[in-house]
TrEMBL record:
PROSITE patterns: WD_REPEATS_1, WD_REPEATS_2, WD_REPEATS_REGION. The keyword DNA repair applies. This is DNA damage-binding protein 2. GO terms for cellular component: chromosome; Cul4A-RING E3 ubiquitin ligase complex; nucleus. WD repeats lie at residues 190-232. Belongs to the WD repeat DDB2/WDR76 family. Keywords: Chromosome, DNA damage, DNA repair, DNA-binding, Nucleus, Repeat, Ubl conjugation pathway, WD repeat.
Length: 293
């Protein structure tokens, strides 16, 4: 399924790696390079700067691994992190104050999804192996339960939130996806995948556009205005291995997917049937890429 990728590479001239972004743009202004080659040059310039990156700060507050994280929508130095034991930490690494810490239930409480409430950033949405998708505050109070499982065999693996459409979407470990409004009213509950839904993502520019990823080795694209059942997806993107995540770019035009073996894929909204890029990322067993923020 990578043949179409390589077939398209013999196109516009690609500039040689350039360490200067200004020089790359100057080449374009002089008419010596097309815009696609400029984009490639800018990417190369950015990659060269990665050598200068250093660890700014680090913390180890959990007795189990970190399973989810969310950047604060307006404070760039603040991040919320969830753990496999259900612990949640709000950390402003720009100040020396002690982070806010909410103790979880331990085994079986893994935080699988975490999102700040876009209407009130003192609150957050969380999905967990405890069997709920809920809204709570950083004092530990549960304000509303949006979805709850009646059995220990079913839990929630992912969630996303849209402020403009006031919607919450969550997926579980048997393939179901639930859409609710922010008042907690369930709009629909459908089995969209054959196996666990590892990730759900609303497009940041078109919030009726939904991507769902699953261990059934597919990513599916949906129009929420036209969902009628499991066969009503707009596109199905087959993968060779179970998929961990499907994340839209900030402009909503691209989709990044990560699998449980060794592959990162980039898809474009103009050509969903074929990835723009395949990036190898080898890892050891059970150390696959988690969602990138």
């Amino acid at each position: 399924d990578s043949d179409c990728l390589w077939a398209g590479l013999a196109g516009p001239q690609i500039l040689p790696p350039c360490h200067s972004i200004v020089r790359t743009l100057h080449q374009h202004k002089l008419g010596r390079a097309s815009w696609p080659s400029v984009q490639q040059g800018l990417q190369q310039s950015f990659l060269h700067t990665l050598d200068s990156y250093r660890i700014l700060q680090k913390a180890a507050p959990f007795d189990r691994r970190a399973t989810s994280l969310a950047w604060h929508p307006t404070h760039p130095s603040t991040v919320a992190v969830g753990s496999k034991g259900g612990d949640i930490m709000l950390w402003n690494f720009g100040i020396k104050d002690k982070p806010t810490f909410i103790k979880g239930i331990g085994a079986g409480g893994s935080i699988t999804g975490l999102k700040f409430n876009p209407l009130n950033t003192n609150q957050f949405y969380a999905s967990s192996m405890e069997g709920t998708t809920r809204l709570q505050d950083f004092k530990g109070n549960i304000l509303r339960v949006f979805a709850s499982s009646d059995t220990i065999n079913i839990w929630f693996c992912s969630l996303d939130v849209s402020a403009s459409s006031r919607m919450v979407v969550t997926g579980d470990n048997v393939g179901n996806v639930i859409l609710l409004n922010m008042d907690g009213k369930e709009l629909w509950n459908l089995r969209m995948h054959k196996k666990k839904v590892t990730h759900v993502a609303l497009n940041p520019c078109c919030d009726w556009f939904l991507a769902t990823a699953s261990v059934d080795q597919t990513v599916k694209i949906w129009d929420l205005r036209q969902v009628r059942g499991k066969a009503s997806f707009l596109y199905s993107l087959p993968h060779r291995h179970p998929v961990n995540a499907a994340c839209f770019s900030p402009d909503g035009a691209r989709l990044l997917t990560t699998d449980q073996k060794s592959e990162i894929r980039i898809y474009s909204a103009s050509q969903w049937d074929c990835p723009l890029g395949l990036i190898p990322h080898p890892h050891r067993h059970f150390q696959h890429l988690t969602p990138i923020k």
